[in-house]
């Protein structure tokens, strides 16, 4: 019932787009690239805030200042 | 790093309250003459309860009670458990929606939805300091934001090959490749194929590197803003929990604000399957089904090959047994 898409469809689509369309306007490509870079700029904030788990849980000031060798 | 610190602290506080007492303070937070009944990290033993005898002045250390959260989870491993579960969900989500970035009109839509959900979940970290019993909400938000971030990166990365193809260098190299094939035949086109491949590699590396550079700049800038916020909120007398809650949600606001600036610039970029005659509500179903079954089939083949290889190696070690894999 459903048509299955595969890698061949994708390659064909890209090839068709390539042969039909002229070179992309450099200004449009630049705008797209800037948008792409901005997204990396945006989501990296989460990486440093939430994904730095090992550093985060071990860098508690108490851990460093509270270690003793005595027993 | 503020989110793990906050959720870890909330979980520990809640576990102590379940035990029936309040969490003792760290000895380093107390004045030197009152450092008794406080937590001290002893090398080789971890955190211990330090008690100073009032009469003799002798110091003894005792083990802390075994603290657990509902479900038997150790409070110190709560955050790692939540992250592990989110990685499992990420694996399912990646296999399910991974190919949607290349088909239909899902590239930008997927990026916008996944990113917005993740950023909003990150902003909600500001609610956690209300009570220690909110630690489980923290775990849930970590799972939602982690999975959303992963899915958004899948859609985000699906833009890369298209942008690479549109760079002037790759466009020229691909056209030269086509011309070579038409005019000089297959042998001559091998060189132009190679130059097109090299142009793609170079453009890919350049764009990826610049993206990573801006990622590091963004992460560092947001960290600086968050640390300043922690200093200011602490200076005006806010508790550590609220300081960390605000710092955590700053990264959510940052993600939300700058991602909307990115969405303004990123185009739709539809792939094949946009105008197919599927019922509207079930556009993505065949792609998801196909992708899921393909991935599982490939995994099955990989595991079969791996097992066969292992069996062959094992049997080759027993050369005298007369059995082969």
Protein model, in words:
The complex is a heterodimer of chains A (71) and B (325). With 71 residues, chain A is mainly alpha-helical. Chain A has a domain at 24-71. Chain A is 72% helix and 3% strand. Chain A has 4 helices and 1 strand, in the order H-H-H-H-E. Chain A has helices at 7-20, 26-51, 53-58, 61-65, and one strand at 67-68. The longest helix of chain A is centred in the middle third of the chain and has 26 residues, at 26-51. Chain A is elongated and about 45 Å long. Chain A starts with 6 loop residues before the first helix and ends with a strand. Residues 55-65 of chain A have low confidence and may be disordered. Chain B is mainly α and 325 residues long. Chain B has a domain at 76-265. In chain B, 66% of the residues lie in helices and 5% in strands. Chain B is built from 8 helices and 3 strands. Chain B has a 3-stranded antiparallel sheet with strand order 1-2-3, with no helix packed on it. The radius of gyration of chain B is 28 Å and the shape is elongated. Residues 274-279 and 316-325 of chain B have low confidence and may be disordered. Chains A and B meet through helix 1, helix 2, helix 3, helix 4 and strand 1 of A and helix 1, strand 1, helix 2, helix 3 and helix 4 of B.
What is the element string of chain A, with H for helices and E for strands? HHHHE
Helix-and-strand structural type of chain B: mainly alpha
User: Whole-Å distance between the termini of chain B?
Assistant: 50 Å
Helix content of chain B: 55-70%
Number of DSSP E strands of chain A: 1
User: Biggest sheet of chain A, open or closed, and with what strands and sense?
Assistant: none
Q: Biggest interface between protein chains, with counts per chain?
A: A-B, 53 and 87 residues
Apparent shape of chain A: elongated
Question: Can you give the mean pLDDT of chain A?
Answer: 66
Low-confidence stretches of chain A: 55-65
- Approximately how much beta-strand content do the residues of chain B carry? 5-15%
| Total E-strand runs of chain B | 3
Query: Unreliable runs of chain B, pLDDT <50, ≥5 residues?
Result: 274-279, 316-325
Strand fraction band of chain A? under 5%
Please work out how many helical segments of chain A DSSP would assign: 4
* Rg from Cα of chain A: 25 Å
């Amino acid at each position: 019932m459903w048509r299955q898409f595969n890698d061949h469809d994708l390659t064909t689509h890209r090839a068709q787009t390539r042969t039909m369309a002229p070179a992309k306007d450099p200004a449009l490509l630049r705008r797209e690239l800037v948008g792409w870079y901005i997204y990396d700029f945006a989501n990296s904030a989460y990486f440093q805030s939430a994904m730095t788990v090992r550093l985060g849980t071990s860098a508690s000031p108490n851990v460093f200042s509270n270690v003793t060798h005595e027993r | 790093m503020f989110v793990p610190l906050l959720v870890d602290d909330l979980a520990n506080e809640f576990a102590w309250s379940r035990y029936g007492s309040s969490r003792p303070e760290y000895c380093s937070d107390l004045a030197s003459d009152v450092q008794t009944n406080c937590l001290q990290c002893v090398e080789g033993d971890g955190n211990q309860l330090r008690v100073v005898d009032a009469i003799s002045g002798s110091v003894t250390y005792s083990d802390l009670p075994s603290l657990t959260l509902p479900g038997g989870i150790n409070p110190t491993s709560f955050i790692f458990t939540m992250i592990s579960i989110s990685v499992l969900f990420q694996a399912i989500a990646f296999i399910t929606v991974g190919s949607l970035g290349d088909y239909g009109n899902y590239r930008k839509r997927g990026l916008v939805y996944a990113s917005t959900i993740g950023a909003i979940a990150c902003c909600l970290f500001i609610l956690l300091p209300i009570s220690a019993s909110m630690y489980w909400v923290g775990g849930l938000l970590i799972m939602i934001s982690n999975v959303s971030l992963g899915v958004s990166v899948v859609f985000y990365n699906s833009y890369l090959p298209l942008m690479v193809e549109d760079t002037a260098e790759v466009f020229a190299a691909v056209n030269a490749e086509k011309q070579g094939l038409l005019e000089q035949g297959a042998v001559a086109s091998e060189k132009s194929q190679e130059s097109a491949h090299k142009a793609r590699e170079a453009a890919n590396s350049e764009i990826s590197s610049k993206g990573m550079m801006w990622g590091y700049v963004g992460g560092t800038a947001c960290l600086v803003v968050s640390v300043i916020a922690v200093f200011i909120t602490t200076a005006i007398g806010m508790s550590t929990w609220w300081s960390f809650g605000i710092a955590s949600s700053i990264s959510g606001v940052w993600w939300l604000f700058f991602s909307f600036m990115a969405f303004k610039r990123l185009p739709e970029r539809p792939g094949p399957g946009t105008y197919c005659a599927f019922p509207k509500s079930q556009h993505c179903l065949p792609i998801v089904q196909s992708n899921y079954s393909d991935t599982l089939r490939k995994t099955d083949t990989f595991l079969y090959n791996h097992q066969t290889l292992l069996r062959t190696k094992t049997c080759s070690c027993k050369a005298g047994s007369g059995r082969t894999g």
